[in-house]
Amino acid sequence: MSTTPNPKLADQPNSNLEKDPDDWTTGDEPMTGAQTSYLKTLSEEAHQPDQFADDLSKAEASKRIDALRQAMGR
Asked: What are the structural domain ranges in the chain?
């Protein structure tokens, strides 16, 4: 068994568990179906329907989801 720590499992700031959406290699692709559904739901629950647009990229959708979740205390 290897004793080398797995950086993907590390609980530290330099971990690979979370990447800035601006650094995603696929961030310019259209948002996923799951993102579309979740963003639509969150924007309605937050009474901010203008935060939803069906032509967002994966990265932009992620940023909007994070902002709405934070604003709603989730």
From this structure: 27-71
Share of the chain above pLDDT 70, in %: 81
How far is C-alpha 72 from the chain's CA centre? 15
With beta carbons less than 8 A apart as the criterion, state whether 31 and 22 touch: no
In angstroms, what CA-CA distances link 71 with 3, 46, 57, 65?
41, 8, 21, 10
Residue 61 burial (CB count, 10 A): 24
pLDDT tens digits, 39-51: 999 999 999 999 9
pTM check: above 0.90: no
Q: How far is CA 15 from the centre of its chain?
A: 16
Question: Are residues 19 and 13 in contact, defined by beta-carbon separation less than 8 angstroms?
Answer: no
